[in-house]
Write a structure and sequence with these properties.
The structure is a single chain. The protein is an alpha/beta fold. It contains 7 helices and 10 strands. A 10-stranded mixed beta sheet has the order 1-8-2-3-7-4-6-5-9-10, sandwiched between helices. A hairpin with a 6-residue loop joins strand 9 and strand 10. Helix 1 crosses helix 6.
């Protein structure tokens, strides 16, 4: 099912429909400031497990999406240096790797001690997380590590994945350039993948 949500003044009714799907252990596909992404509630171990199966890689690291930096500090260990980097670059097309706190469920970590975090600049992504009242576990919509053309068009995404997810949010045409991934767990920030974001 395709649900249209506009970035300016997102419909509360449609957001409620998305939240209800997420609270029933559903997976949704939603727009970000880079590629479209799968998302499920961090509170739903069942949905996180299904998301891993859907991606076909049970051990692949997942990312958690927040609506603000205060949320990140609740679920990750953020020192002053990391906080300044997050403040300068978020919201934006970045995935930052941080040490996870005990609030991140084991299902999302899969024996890791770190987690990728995102605060997209796309207003629909942040509105969904805010309405849900907890972070979303997320993974990019892509095939075999390649972002393919259909992944920018919500109607084509719905054709491809409509049977596998509760709904697809149409937030307009997406991008096919992934996020810049930055590891903040060492002495210095380390760029693991160059993407849309330029680190400030």
């Amino acid at each position: 099912m395709l649900v249209k949500i506009y970035g300016q003044n997102p419909s509360e009714r449609e957001l409620k429909r998305v939240v209800e799907a997420l609270e029933r252990d559903g997976i949704v596909i939603y727009p970000t400031d880079s590629v479209y992404a799968f998302g499920c509630s961090l509170r739903s171990a069942k949905a996180v497990e299904r998301l891993r199966r859907l991606r076909g890689r049970s051990d692949a690291p997942l990312t958690v999406v927040f609506d603000d930096i205060a949320g990140v500090a609740e679920y990750c260990r953020v020192d002053n240096a990391a906080f300044r980097i997050l403040k300068r670059n978020l919201p934006g097309p970045f995935t930052f790797i941080l040490p996870a706190s005990s609030r991140i469920p084991d299902k999302a970590l899969e024996r890791r001690r770190t987690i990728g975090i995102r605060i997209p600049s796309h207003p629909v992504a942040r509105a969904v997380v805010e309405a849900l009242g907890c972070p979303m576990v997320t993974a990019s919509v892509k095939d075999d590590d390649e972002v393919v053309e259909y992944t920018t068009d919500p109607e084509l995404i719905e054709e491809r994945y409509g049977r596998d997810v509760a709904l697809v949010i149409d937030g307009g045409m997406g991008d096919n350039v992934p996020t810049t991934v930055v590891d903040l767990t060492g002495e210095e920030p380390e760029i693991l993948r160059e993407g849309r974001g330029e680190l400030q």
